[in-house]
């Protein structure tokens, strides 16, 4: 990494960074450029946020609707209005009291030589190109050329469509630079003379020799661990930070980097600590963010898990799981058990989708051992088996520079060895584990293996859990969210409070979210689905009512109808693509790379005729009666997010009811809509955060408040810095069934308390005064109180 001085502690690194009170995410795209965002500034400033969070702003593939396919780090994207447009947006935002936070993509670029100047140079000049250090290309694999798996069919089938013109090779709109001096060769000789080999796109699975983003061959990994590459790819962003145009950074997918901590230290040094920086780090279970990382915290998926879980009924979710297994029957993957489903998905992904990545690790391990007399004579297949078996046993996304032994445990190695039919070859597991932990050598190949193992681990976790198992095990779809735990949907109130106390102490400026551009379902859709855990038998009755619409299989029926229930309104145009995507991601009967056209046609026809046409929420009196409880869940989650420790982010349009499904459905351009009761709540909470940053920001305290009485478990309440109290209703359907609040009471801290949400009511606190929750929640299921005076 660079030799620039770096802050010695996280607090020092962020000391000068302005901490937002709240951010608002805008999805920029050609349909919604900087100028459109600038026009929205007065509205967003009035809403009460302090910063606009922009999706990636650097040059990207023309027409890209997301911007994560970066092509040139040197310039701001022209299709959005260029640097002039970004600076104009920043000036307008500043005039309205707002700053800008930008999504930064350090891990990958578009693997399209037409637009990626660095890759184009490498393809033209080969490993001697000054840009060759930008990418993880294994030039020693295969025939010493870089494989480009871009052909729609095998080479002989498309050869006649190739032509040479203007120093490039052209095929069906694609363009590839030619090695100097080869332009006049016959086509076959010309193809063999290049530094790259054009291949059928299916070869990417097993033959790819460059690091990519997950399993997306169209995105090539970038080696920002190289000081020159870091400098070249960050100069423009650092300039924008230095000029005050950008005040915050969201770091996309840090787990894809060779050394996330080293990268973040370099970034902190380059920006001088002038940026509020959060990382898109997905934490698993009890995992915490490494203390040494010089950032404000995560982007907030760990908070999302807590917020979703604390409003989910545990007993009901277990009953739903049993109903799911009965309903789906033989179509249930691995008997409808979460752990077995996740493990099977991991094996499939590591052996199929990530075959190129495990092959690369096997080659590196082989070269290390060939050069070390103490490690020779391991069979390549033994390395491959050891790598696979250890990868599937990593319980989190990846090991880091420190603490790796806690992830790649001795127990994990013991389990990996059990997969060997030849016990003598099981010693390869110890070698691979030592290499992955950095315990055996520190040469270039050793460092490469350790980094690539961790990078592959994160890709495996994301693809096997988020993009496969979450679509196979589906009793309660609201739990199958990024950072979630499908096997344990509910979070006890005590666990939520413990999480908030820890965040207030350790990461008070971390992000919190409910909906993002990557969530599979918006918070409102998840809230509706989660309510089903409070009434499993109502869900069973609903499924019986729609049984007359034939489905291709019960697994699809369960998923599609639950999606439709969460979405709330029949809309085949939006539901059908989401349901088709779910069956492709699940990979049980069709997939993206091996589609079953007949099955997919049956799925689409069913989705259009049933979930896309029938209004399931109003299909029966019982379903219609759930609407108030869906609203209670949604409002409670919003208010808890806006007032819990951390910096809340609103995804575009979520200041009001917002129903959206998986991308691209959730990435439609921002548009101002009519206010609803959600909007009033959001405005009140955000105004309070801006007026009282000392209450909610670093240094502020979080104190749980416990209710007493027969319905105490249905109240989630906490005080912030002794000045603000949040109280919300949880599991309101179960509450109603049990007879309501009855004599349940809440003791407020000392003083007089005013209700911010109605501006009229006042309450008295103190141990001698108990507030009846039936009174507090008489008009709405949530309350936001401020100490009067």
Question: Can you put this structure into words, describing what you see?
Answer:
- By secondary structure, the protein is an alpha/beta fold.
- It is 41% helix and 14% strand.
- The chain is built from 29 helices and 27 strands.
- The strands form seven sheets. The protein has an eight-stranded parallel sheet with strand order 16-15-14-5-2-1-18-17. Strands 19-21-22-27-24-25 form a six-stranded antiparallel sheet, covered by helices on one side.
- Helix 14 (380-391) packs across helix 15 (410-417).
- 52% of the residues are buried.
- Residues 1-15 have low confidence and may be disordered.
* Order of adjacent strands in the largest pleated sheet: 16-15-14-5-2-1-18-17
Distance N terminus to C terminus? 53 Å
Task: Give the biggest beta sheet.
Answer: 8 strands, parallel
The number of distinct helices, counting runs of at least 4 residues, comes to 29
Fraction of residues in helix? 40-55%
Uncertain segments are 1-15
Q: Specify Rg, calculated over alpha carbons.
A: 27 Å
Find the count of extended strands (DSSP E, 2+ residues): 27
The geometry reads as globular
Structural class: alpha/beta
Which strand-content bin applies to the residues? 5-15%
Question: Kindly state the mean pLDDT as a whole number?
Answer: 95
């Amino acid at each position: 990494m660079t030799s620039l001085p770096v802050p010695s502690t996280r607090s020092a690194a962020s000391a000068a960074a302005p901490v937002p009170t709240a951010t608002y995410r805008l999805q920029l795209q050609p349909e919604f450029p900087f100028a459109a965002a600038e026009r929205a500034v007065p509205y967003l400033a009035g809403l009460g946020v302090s910063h606009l969070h922009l999706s990636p702003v650097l040059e990207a593939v023309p027409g890209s609707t997301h911007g994560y396919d970066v092509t040139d780090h040197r310039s701001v994207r022209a299709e959005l209005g260029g640097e002039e447009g970004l600076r104009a947006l920043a000036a307008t935002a500043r005039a309205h009291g707002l700053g800008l936070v930008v999504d930064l993509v350090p891990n990958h670029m578009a693997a399209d030589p037409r637009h990626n100047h660095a890759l184009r140079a490498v393809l033209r000049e080969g490993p001697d190109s000054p840009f060759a250090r930008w990418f993880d290309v294994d030039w020693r694999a295969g025939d010493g050329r870089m494989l480009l798996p871009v052909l729609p069919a095998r080479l002989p089938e498309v050869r006649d469509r190739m032509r040479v013109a203007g120093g490039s090779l052209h095929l069906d709109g694609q363009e590839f630079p030619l090695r100097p001096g080869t332009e006049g060769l016959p086509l076959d000789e010309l193809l063999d003379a290049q530094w790259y080999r054009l291949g059928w796109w299916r070869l990417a699975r097993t033959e790819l020799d460059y690091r990519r983003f997950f399993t997306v061959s169209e995105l090539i990994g970038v080696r920002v661990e190289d000081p020159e590459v870091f400098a070249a790819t960050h100069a423009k962003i650092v300039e924008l930070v230095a000029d005050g145009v950008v005040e915050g950074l969201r770091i996309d997918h840090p787990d894809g980097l060779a050394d996330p901590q080293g990268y973040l230290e370099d970034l902190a040094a380059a920006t001088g600590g002038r940026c509020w920086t959060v990382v898109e780090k997905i934490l698993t279970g009890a995992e915490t963010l490494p203390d040494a990382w010089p950032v404000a915290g995560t982007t907030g998926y760990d908070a999302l898990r807590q917020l979703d879980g604390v409003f989910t009924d545990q007993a009901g979710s277990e009953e739903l799981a049993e109903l799911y297994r009965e309903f789906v029957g033989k179509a249930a993957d691995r008997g409808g058990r979460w752990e077995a489903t996740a493990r099977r998905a991991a094996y499939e992904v590591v052996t199929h989708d990530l075959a190129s990545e495990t092959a690369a690790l096997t080659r590196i391990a082989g070269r290390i051992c060939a050069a070390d007399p103490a490690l020779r004579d391991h069979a390549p297949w033994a390395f491959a088996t050891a790598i696979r078996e250890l990868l599937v046993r990593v319980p989190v996304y990846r090991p880091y520079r420190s603490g790796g032994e806690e992830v790649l445990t001795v127990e994990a190695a013991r389990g990996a060895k059990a997969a060997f039919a030849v016990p003598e070859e099981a010693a390869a597991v110890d070698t691979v584990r030592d290499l992955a932990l950095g315990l055996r050598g520190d040469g270039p190949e050793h460092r490469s293996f350790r980094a690539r193992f961790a990078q592959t681990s994160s890709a495996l976790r994301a693809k096997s859990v988020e993009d496969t198992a979450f679509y196979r095990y589906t009793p309660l779809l609201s739990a199958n969210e990024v950072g979630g735990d499908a096997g344990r949907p509910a979070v006890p109130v005590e666990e939520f409070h413990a999480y908030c106390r820890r965040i207030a102490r350790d990461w008070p400026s971390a992000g919190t979210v409910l909906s993002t551009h990557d969530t599979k379902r918006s918070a409102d859709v998840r809230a509706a689905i989660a309510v089903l855990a409070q009434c499993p038998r109502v869900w069973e009755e609903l499924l019986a009512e729609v049984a007359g619409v034939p489905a291709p299989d019960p697994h699809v029926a369960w998923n599609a109808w639950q999606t439709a229930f969460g979405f709330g309104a029949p809309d085949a145009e939006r539901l059908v693509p989401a349901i088709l995507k779910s069956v492709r991601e699940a990979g049980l009967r069709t997939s993206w790379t091996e589609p079953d056209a007949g099955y997919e046609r049956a799925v689409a026809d069913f989705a259009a005729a049933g979930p896309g046409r029938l209004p399931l929420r109003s299909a029966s009196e019982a379903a219609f009666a759930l609407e108030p409880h869906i609203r209670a869940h949604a409002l409670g989650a919003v208010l808890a997010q806006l007032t819990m420790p951390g910096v809340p982010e609103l995804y575009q349009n979520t200041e009001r009811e917002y129903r959206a499904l998986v991308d691209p459905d959730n990435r439609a351009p921002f548009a101002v809509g009519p206010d609803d009761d959600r909007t009033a709540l959001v405005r009140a909470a955000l105004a309070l955060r801006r007026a009282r940053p000392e209450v909610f920001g670093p240094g502020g305290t979080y104190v749980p408040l416990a209710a007493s009485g027969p319905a105490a478990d249905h109240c989630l309440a906490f005080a912030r810095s002794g000045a603000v109290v949040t109280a919300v209703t949880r599991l309101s359907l179960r509450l109603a069934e049990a007879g309501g609040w009855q004599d349940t009471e809440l003791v407020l801290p000392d003083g007089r308390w005013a209700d911010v949400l109605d501006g009229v009511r006042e309450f008295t606190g103190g141990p001698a005064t108990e507030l009846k929750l039936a009174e507090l929640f008489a008009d709405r299921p949530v309350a936001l109180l401020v100490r009067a005076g």
